[in-house]
Amino acid sequence: MNDIIKFDNKLSIEKSGEGKRGFSFKKAAPKAGIPQGAARTTRPRLPELSEFDVVRHFTRLSKFNFSVDTHFYPLGSCTMKYNPKINEEVSSFDGFTHTHPLAMDACAQGTLEIIWDMEKRLCELCGMDAGTLWPVAGAHGEYTGILLAKKHFEELNRSRDVPSPVKNEEGTVPIHSDRVNRDEIIVPDSAHGTNPATASMAGFKTININSAPDGRIDLEVLKARITPKTAVIMLTVPNTLGIFESNIAKICEMAHANGSLVYMDGANFNALIGLVKPGELGVDIMHLNMHKTFSTPHGGGGPGAGGIMVKKALIPYLPAPRIEKKGGSFSVNEDLPLSIGRIKAWFTNTQVLLRAYAYLLMHGPKQLREIAENSIINANYIKSGLQDLFPPYSREYCMHECVLAPSKELTDKGIRTLDVAKRLLDYGYHAPTIYFPIIVHEAIMIEPTETESKETMDAFIAAMTKIHSEAQKDPEFVKKAPHTMPVKRLDEVEAARKPNIRW
Amino acid sequence: MFISNTETEKKEMLRAIGAEKFEDLIKQVPGKFLGSRFDLPEGLSEMETYNRMKELSLKNRNLKSFVGGGAYERYIPSAVKALISRGEFLTAYTPYQPEASQGILQTIYEYQSSMCALYEMDCSNASMYDGSTAFAEAVKACVRINSRKKILYASTMNPRYLDVAKTYFSNPEYEFTAVPAENGAINPEKLKAMLDESVSCVAVANPNYFGVIEDVEALAKAAHEKGALAVCVADPLSLAVLKTPGAAGFDFAVGEGQSLGLPLSYGGPYLGIFTCKKEYVRQMPGRICGMTKDKDGKRGFVLTLQAREQHIRRDKAASNICSNQALCALSAAIYCAIMGPEGLRETALLNNHLANFAAEELAKIKGVKLKYGRPFFNEFVLELPVKAAELREKTACKEGVDPGLDLAHLGKGFENSLLVCLTETKNETDVLNLKKAVEANLAVEAKI
Lengths: 503, 448
Hints:
The complex is a heterodimer of chains A (503) and B (448).
Chain A: H1 51-63, H2 85-91, H3 94-97, H4 109-126, E1 130-132, H5 138-160, E2 162-168, E3 171-175, E4 184-188, H6 194-201, E5 205-209, H7 219-225, E6 230-236, H8 248-257, E7 261-265, H9 278-281, E8 285-287, E9 308-310, E10 322-326, E11 329-333, H10 350-362, H11 365-386, E12 402-404, H12 408-412, H13 417-426, E13 433-434, E14 444-446, H14 454-473, H15 475-479, H16 492-497
Helix pairs in contact in A: 2-10, 4-10, 5-6, 11-14
Chain B: H1 7-17, H2 22-25, H3 46-59, E1 64-65, H4 78-84, H5 87-90, H6 102-119, E2 123-124, H7 131-146, E3 150-154, H8 159-168, E4 175-179, H9 188-194, E5 199-206, H10 216-225, E6 229-234, H11 245-248, E7 252-256, E8 272-276, E9 289-293, E10 299-303, H12 310-313, H13 326-362, E11 369-370, E12 379-383, H14 388-399, E13 401-402, E14 405-406, E15 417-421, H15 428-447
Parallel strand pairs in B: 1-13, 3-4, 3-5, 5-6, 6-7
Antiparallel strand pairs in B: 2-8, 7-8, 9-10, 11-12, 12-15, 14-15
Helix pairs in contact in B: 4-13, 6-13, 7-8, 9-10, 13-15, 14-15
């Protein structure tokens, strides 16, 4: 991966030298008031290093890593687009970073204005009526959205309660005769794992439905599974095969006719931005991933931000607090009797939102549409360049990503998707998402995003083509890939059998 | 805006695809959904964006602040900021391809190890969203383990953590009961009296919301005597000098990692620290990194124990968490490495010293006294002769000092209570200036 710096995998604690210091206040506290029984009696086993030792250690580690800045990273469903540098600078202005979450509203007007304005812009972009930017990740947004749905049905049930004719000491006791217990959420088999996990976490039963052969929701199957117990249908649009749910309007109609809600997983919003408003499709609740569509960096797995957008009927239940504008000033309202409550101690991953806001400021309607257009063109370009060697799941044009699989020539030689993925690393490309969606055998899910150039994609197609021929000539060589990374394939079974998760 | 391809290249690509124009590619989208109007402002240039953001940042007013309450103004060594800004860390994704992500994986392993060392617990995951969601997930893990329905929590905990936990338990079959406080802390005997075999877990915070140091060992012991699990929320920096959750016998220990090298940033991104005893490792939510060997026997790192996670177990997963706070965990790992055991201890003692000094000085003001006569870490509650919110507003307007958090949100008896926080970013002079500011505004009050 990097010939200049030799990979050493010593831990910082193994480089530790007793008495070394990386930081000091140069003055000891003259007195402290920790009672003896309440004091720590041991010394934490942390590295003892100079500042320079630490800088070199972590800088070297950074080199043994693929990233968007250094490598093409076509990880399907993750939207690994370029993360503009301006976002980093403006989100780190002192005025933003020094503001305490419990600062008085008057001292946080700038940040409050941004959150307020951003919510409005995102509502317009999604064709929804209101939103909240408190969720800090897609899955956190899903959970919040499903709790809103749960609350919505609870309130509906409450409104159906009729007073009992018999009075006790506390007054009338309602009779719950007309309650509908909606405890099921329908999730297609192509969904992200977070969808069913969210449903369970919120106390719902997941009803999995099989997709039709074209990868879309099978309306007949759906019809059979929608019942009075159905609370929500959770969909991803475009779905994880990169296919638009062309029957979405019909699906939403079916849901609404049954009194159910439609939740849209917005992980793939990059395909729709500036092009289609999900609200117009009939969606009731959706989440957005700032770290996907809105260009904030993934940071090795986070932090992200995942606001949700809703239709009018769900506004009263949005999580606390709400930001309100009165005259020219902004305030935090905590008095929300119907709210589902707080979903995080303080607001959100605010600094991530600031990055996404800067990105929004730079994109008017025309530029937003260009994001979707180019992400769709790029995905189709890769698909068409590879389709003879890596047959796609669907022959249709795709949206922002495509799902391929190794051809029969490869599988006959015992070559699996994993082998192709590992060999790609040798060519300097991060592997696409693999073995997902789970409904596609040996799936290779490629999302180039709009920011990659034709030149990069041509080189990627050439690398995949080369791997295809290598795999036929010398399959054993490909099965042993990667050959140029700091480590060879790792023993994951042993890692799980005897977990070593700390020094 | 950030698109590489030219119009000519786009045309070439469409030709290669076999489409005449872009619209051919999206025929699967019903026509009625295309052509929506977007009522949004025109895009700004990079320079205009910079200026607009600068302007907005200046609308925030950063006072000399003594507000804590769970998020703390800390000095962040420059090296931490420089290292986490490296694109190789910043712009990578979750390390799904371990061979191409050894750098990040090793930092996660080092983070997990540092948290285990600070909390003296057996295991740590790779991070949660923040302290409050880590707390909610720990309580969820407890009810999964023992299938009991009752949760006893210390009324001295940060109320926001409770709010979040209650949101996470949207199902009414779970019952949350507060253990009342005595003079700002929980009396273990009182807790014992409330415990029975229906209690799933006892949750406490140390230092607690009032900054007071609790008798954690006795509280954990009381929980275990009735077969309940014990969960502790602890500030990681305080653990350089305070008895750790591990030493006190807790089963789960969580905390807000913002103290370890992260800016305040109006609420985030912060870092949810989640640790537990080894017998519960398979109940941990989120990512876990493990050390293993490659085909040649060389040391390497992978994400492990993934059978707990959503992408494998779907509706049977321990949690739905996918994206976490990896870059914040990296900050914490770097912060711990730079500070080392001595640096952390020095910082914690400095916090404690300044808080004691401030408490002593402020209690000298006429009509002001310490609400609780108990040892504290870096925060304490003052009882004022006036409403704390009013004093706060006046001091902020007139002297540019935010003297602390008013605790009126805790209800009756707290209207005049002010939670004052001291960290290493302040010094004795700041404390004396704070004293002057409070004195001045209380005097004005007295005249009226």
